[in-house]
Amino acid sequence: MVADAVIYHPAVSHYLKFVATTVGRDKLLRTLQYFARFYAWYLLRTNKPQGSIAPWEAMKKQFGLVRKVLRAGKNVEHFKAAAVAADNKTMDPVLRYTAVGRQLGYAGYLTLDLATLMDATGIRKSASAKKFQQEAYRFWAMGIMCSIVAQTYTLYQLRQREARVDRKEGEGVVESKRIVMERAASRLQLTSDLCDLTVPVSALNWVGFDDGVVGLAGTLSSLIGVYIQWKKTA
């Protein structure tokens, strides 16, 4: 009876829905990958022996490789999303242009990242792999920056909407609650974007973040991604 209660618990069904999605598995792997990056840095800084650091370095490297394989071909999804956003003439112009820029940035990143897959897996080494990866980071940074602009603009719009709401009316109360929910979602996405931005800017040497900062920021953004995907699969 206890086993049945556990197996048929709604949380187990929810978990199965979550891990059945590629995004769900990717976010879990990403959380472990970036935590391993932070923890390996921490162990190194505290002068721990190489034997203690090696498993975390291996986790960082191997989970990163698994994620690279899992996202192969995902660039097509972002090219299509960019085209859909460009064709949406009813969308606010700022949000439309930033959506196109974000999707093209991610598409460019994933396309160039895919070009390094054979080299990363050791199937076929390429002298151009490092250059492709650097250019991929540039596209990723561009996509994230577009997303940051979009979320900042969205928060500004929400403040404007909130100022016009009449909370004395029933409809105004409903609108106020809707604004609170939209603001929370936008702030969460903005936080995730700011954390994610540390990865490409440090890889490109635009900002001198060490593995401790990048690892913690990546872990936080990954946990936010887990939370968002968990809610979507509820």
TrEMBL record:
Keywords: Membrane, Peroxisome, Peroxisome biogenesis. It holds the Pfam family PEX11. The keyword Cell membrane does not apply. GO terms for cellular component: peroxisomal membrane. It is found in: Peroxisome membrane. It comes from the Eukaryota. The keyword Transmembrane does not apply. InterPro entries: PEX11. Signal peptide: none annotated. One of its GO terms (biological process) is peroxisome fission. PANTHER family: PEROXIN 11, PEROXISOMAL BIOGENESIS FACTOR 11. This is Peroxisomal biogenesis factor 11. It comes from Apodospora peruviana.
